[in-house]
Design goal:
Structural class: mainly beta
Radius of gyration: 13 Å
Largest sheet: 7 strands, mixed
Distance between the termini: 37 Å
Amino acid sequence: VQLQASGGGLVQTGGSLRLSCAASGVIFSINGMGWYRQAPGKERELVAVIISNGDSTYYADSMKGRFTISRDNNKNTLYLQMNSLKSEDTAVYYCAKSPNYYMDYVDYWGQGTQVTVSS
């Protein structure tokens, strides 16, 4: 199983980024997926999760209304559209896979992509 995250970078406050996570070695369409992040000196935290068919999503409170998680099962790819970025969104962002159709626990992590929001 490989989860290859990309799309991170340096952006100014208020800007946008779209992260992608390309999955291989899995039957992508049957697994719940999610994005997590870890800021320096902090624990890893949930950003958003999505069920296998994409019909249901969940966001951490601080991301609601600014971030959108989506997936394209034909391309085996997970996305995270991030708008209205704030300095506190600076972190390494990880995509993650669940063995079930919803995200109950993570069995594989991607390698992470750095997002830096400057003021």
